[in-house]
Amino acid sequence: MAVHRPSDIKPLGHSVQESVDDFFRTLNGHAPKNLYDLFLDQVEPPLLRATLRYCHGNQSRAADMLGLNRATLRKKLKQYKISADSHKL
């Protein structure tokens, strides 16, 4: 298993910036519509799944880590059709 030193880890914002820049390059000058909603629809589900996995499916702990109340987390899981068993993926 690889050991990561703090200097090896890029800030999350750096990865997001690279992905968004790549997205804009693929548009070839066309302007996207509803970019904010598109971004949330692409980023929020993997964030929820990864957090659930990290918390071994414990929704209360995941909600706390995300800064959401449990009811809001459950609403988002339903919105994105993410099962409570997603942590096993």
Summarize the structure in short.
Helices cover 60% and strands 0% of the residues. It has four helices and no strands. The chain has helices at 12-26, 35-54, 59-66, 70-79.
Structure description:
By secondary structure, the chain is mainly alpha-helical. It is 60% helix and 0% strand. The protein has four helices and no strands. It has helices spanning 12-26, 35-54, 59-66, 70-79. Helix 2 (35-54) crosses helix 3 and helix 3 (59-66) crosses helix 4 (70-79). The longest helix has 20 residues, at 35-54. The model has no long low-confidence stretch (mean pLDDT 90).
How would you describe this structure in keywords?
89 residues, mainly alpha
Largest sheet: none
Count of β-strands? 0
Q: What does the average pLDDT come to?
A: 90
Overall helicity: 55-70%
What is the helix/strand order?
Answer: HHHH
Beta-strand residue percentage: under 5%
Unreliable residue runs = none
Coarse morphology: flat
Radius of gyration: 16 Å
Number of helices: 4
**Which class do the helix and strand fractions yield?**
mainly alpha
What is the CA–CA distance across the termini?
20 Å
Write the layout of secondary structure elements.
Blueprint: H1 12-26, H2 35-54, H3 59-66, H4 70-79
Helix pairs in contact: 2-3, 3-4
